[in-house]
Amino acid sequence: MKTLLLLLLAHSLFISGCSTITAGGAEITGLSLLNDRRSRDAILADEAIEDNAGAKLNAYYDLRDKCHFNITAYNGAVLVTGEAPKEEFRSRIIDIVRVIPNVKLVHNKLTIAQPSPFNFRANDTLITGRVKTALTQIPGFDASWVKVITEKSTVYLMGLVHRNEGAAAIDAARHQSDVNQIITVFEYID
């Protein structure tokens, strides 16, 4: 059945020449709509949260220049990672994110530290890639169900998953090199 849906979707995209839906500046591919467990509206709301947070935070030169932050939204839950050199900056970042429309919950994982150097961030990107690849190897698991974020070798896993799927994702991440810690920000659907 899923194969038939994919073929129909691919055929309709080919005929129409349209491969994405654009709404409010956010683009959603047909495949992400088909596989994502969030509703279309939730996906768009998450994109808007991330865009809005980035714009608001980057408007403050002191935050933009002295801090390193990443904002990841999934089904209204927002994960804030990175570094702020002072508690004052950390609190301001969280306060700004907390009042953005459609934010249900904020997971504050900002550390009080100087912004991480480029080589740390490059290593984090490699770790994220390895974890995402490992997720594609789990039988019966769709890697699009989980967002992977890595900060200072700590892997954060976000998504709408069943408990057994979450356990499989954790196990896959655990076996990747350079992973120091795994923190789950799952929303369980069972």
TrEMBL record:
Residues in the signal sequence: 1-23
Q: What is this protein called?
A: Transport-associated protein
Q: Which UniProt keywords apply?
A: Signal
Q: Which Pfam families match?
A: BON
Question: BON domain: which residues?
Answer: 45-114
Q: Which branch of life, at top level?
A: Bacteria
Is tRNA-binding included in the keywords of this UniProt record? no
Q: Which organism is it from?
A: Methylobacter tundripaludum (strain ATCC BAA-1195 / DSM 17260 / SV96)
Stored InterPro entries? BON_dom, Lipoprotein_DolP
